[in-house]
Design a protein that fits this description.
The protein is mostly beta strands. About 10% of the residues lie in helices and about 35% in strands. It has 7 helices and 31 strands.
Length: about 500
């Protein structure tokens, strides 16, 4: 959900009128005295900043929590007759598959709540009909837009249905350089809490862990937490909940609470196996599912199919019919390499010792075959030994007479035990993918993902779990597989170019 920052005068929501805004406000720096300016209808004094004795305000004096509303949810609770303590809210969140990460009272626990709207309903009206010019309000509307400004300028109280919540706070302390005069006039130390918003739409809750002045609180929120607007919540000692500190109170609180939660993400399964047939397994690795076929040329046959005798192109269905016509047992088939518009291979293609297409040494072109070098070749030599090898290494090692079967594709995913340097671990380039490798025991390992994966995590499966020192990417997006009685959902008539088949 896109988060919008609503300016002090709420242009987006048309809620507040612009009053006392300063476009040339000086950026605060640690050690500066807070800019002596008033907010709202009070006359704005000229900006005066004085160099003060440097004062260090550390995170040891304050606790804070920054909320990105794209991933976390803020709600207000304890608005009814039943008041839950933090421990009870913690348990309630778990029951809803949520994690409670931060919570604190909306306002003073002993004072009246003031204006409060929750989920489109007015819970309580303003404290006074004539509001203090310094009182602020914090809100999120139904579109997820964030607002903070003067309560006296909020004119939408009769339309509560437009809001997720609206909460009357204490003094509106800071607005883009304009500072409430209470900050410099009141130097009494108190236990304080505040909420602020940043330019990038984050919400920041701040709580003093020891008695502090408004000036100290504001310096923390502005200079360290980068808030452009700050609203005081509480100016008396109150409890708070912080999951990172594992701190919470078992005492009830009479005030409504801001509750920050996030959905509990299930940890992906590190590794699991399910045997499908003698040669096939379904493997779960880091939450992603794969079909893995493991064969050996000593016990199984491996063959490539592309053009049939009638001049057409094989598909999974016609390959299956061909294997059955030979009275053989079909184990597994999948597509096996890049192809052109006529479904002919674009790289080396050798079947039954005959070369139908030469090695492709072109370095530039469209697609992964060219763009993520090196590309490579899956080969079975004349003695039946399988290997995955880079194209350049293949040229140096193999003569045509030495090759029984070969298909060229790309990119190489694992090269001599190392990942392809072009792959990024956190890449968002996700697709159904298939590839092939040879494990440490000399077995052929053919894999197709059932979930969308990126190149890095697909390569990690081959390298770290299947123990393939070299692995070759065959194709993606269109990748399909077939195993009799197991894969009935595959469009077996879909044209896939080259197909690799295992049978016995």
């Amino acid at each position: 959900m896109k988060i919008y920052i609503i300016l002090f005068h709420f242009l987006v929501l048309s809620l507040f009128s612009c009053k006392g805004q300063n476009n040339n406000a000086k950026q605060l720096k640690p050690g500066d005295t807070i800019i002596k300016k008033d907010i709202g209808r009070i006359k704005i004094d000229s900006v005066t900043t004085k160099s003060a004795k440097k004062e260090t305000i550390t995170n040891q004096d304050f606790v804070s929590y920054t909320v990105d509303t794209r991933t976390k949810s803020i709600t207000i609770t304890n608005t009814g007759k039943t008041k839950l303590n933090y421990n009870q809210h913690l348990q309630k969140a778990k029951e809803q598959n949520q994690e409670l990460v931060f919570a604190l009272p909306v306002t003073n626990t002993k004072g009246k709540t003031g204006l409060l709207i929750k989920n489109g309903k007015l819970i309580s009206p303003r404290k006074n009909k004539i509001d203090s010019l310094f009182t602020g309000v914090f809100l999120i509307n139904n579109k997820g837009q964030i607002g903070m400004g003067l309560l006296s300028d909020f004119q939408d109280e009769k339309n509560p249905k437009n809001y997720k919540f609206v909460s009357e706070g204490g003094a509106f302390l800071f607005n883009n350089g304009d500072v409430n005069s209470i900050v410099t006039k009141d130097s009494k130390k108190r236990y304080l809490s505040a909420v602020g918003v940043t330019n990038n739409g984050a919400i920041v809750f701040g709580v003093s862990k020891k008695e502090s002045t408004y000036d100290e609180l504001l310096k923390f929120m502005v200079t360290q937490k980068k808030c452009t607007r700050v609203l005081l919540l509480n100016n008396e000692k109150s409890s708070y909940f912080s999951a990172s500190e594992k701190k919470y109170s078992t005492q009830e609180t009479n005030a409504p609470l801001f509750i920050v939660t996030q959905k509990i993400e299930e940890k992906p399964v590190e590794y699991a196996e399910e045997t499908l047939t003698k040669n096939l397994k379904r493997i779960t690795y880091l939450g992603k599912h794969y079909i893995v076929c493991t064969v050996t040329t000593k016990n199984q046959n491996v063959e490539l199919f592309n053009q049939n005798k009638q001049g057409g192109v094989y598909n999974l269905q016609t390959v299956n019919k061909e294997i059955n016509s030979r009275k053989k047992t079909h184990i597994f088939s999948m597509n096996a390499g890049m192809y052109d518009k006529q479904y002919n291979p674009i790289g080396l293609y050798v079947a039954n010792g005959k070369e139908y297409h030469p090695v492709n040494l072109q370095k530039q072109g469209y697609g992964n075959f060219y763009s993520l070098p090196p590309n490579g070749i899956f080969v079975i030599d004349s003695k039946g030994k399988p290997e995955v090898i880079s194209t350049q290494a293949f040229i140096k090692k193999y003569k045509p007479s030495m090759v029984k079967l070969a298909t060229q594709s790309g990119p190489m995913m694992v090269i001599n035990g190392k990942f392809n340097k072009a792959f990024n671990e956190g890449s968002s380039n996700l697709n159904i993918r298939n590839g092939i490798g040879v494990d440490e025991n000399g077995n052929i390992v053919a894999v197709i993902s059932e979930d969308e994966v990126n190149f890095y995590e697909f390569s990690a499966l081959f390298k770290e779990k299947l123990k393939c020192n070299n692995a070759l990417y065959l194709d993606g997006v269109v990748s399909q597989w077939y195993a009799p009685k197991l894969q009935e959902k595959t469009n077996s008539q879909y044209k896939l170019g080259t197909i690799i088949t295992f049978f016995q």
